[in-house]
Write a structure and sequence with these properties.
This is Stage II sporulation protein E. It holds the Pfam family SpoIIE. It comes from Chloroflexus aggregans. InterPro entries: PPM-type-like_dom_sf, PPM-type_phosphatase-like_dom, Ptase_RsbX. The chain is an alpha+beta fold. It has a single domain, classed as Phosphatase 2c, domain 1 (4-Layer Sandwich), CATH 3.60.40. About 25% of the residues lie in helices and about 25% in strands. The strands form 2 sheets. Strands 1, 2, 4 and 5 form a 4-stranded mixed beta sheet that branches. A hairpin with a 4-residue loop joins strand 1 and strand 2. It is globular.
Length: about 140
Amino acid sequence: ARRAVTVLESHPNLDLNDLMQRVDRALSGSRGAVMALLRLDDRNRTAEFVGVGNIGVHVHSNLVIKPISKNGIVGYRLPQLLRLTYTYNSGDIFVLYSDGITSRFVTEPLPDLHQPPQQIAEEILTRFGKENDDATVVVVRCE
């Protein structure tokens, strides 16, 4: 993970596909990782996404935004990358989550989305986290 963070911190403005390829090279020879990159441009109201592995993304918006992660492992078997770009609105909420969150997360009513993002993430983890798996949830509210 440290090698991936070093690459991300060293090249924050690089194209997301190029950034993912650099992380792939940095993680070569390791167990690898699943990973998603989301870049929000608040000036142009665009979101760019590229994901590898079982990282889910659920977006609360009045626009159709459906990011898709490709099967693979960063550092071991990087797939052909698919960078997706979307327009977003103020107030939209992006929820990125690992496979430690049950699939019913996207079909059941969600917590009060007016809460701070940290509280939303904690409630998702509490309600939908699998007991026998590690889980990660990141919630981003666009202003």
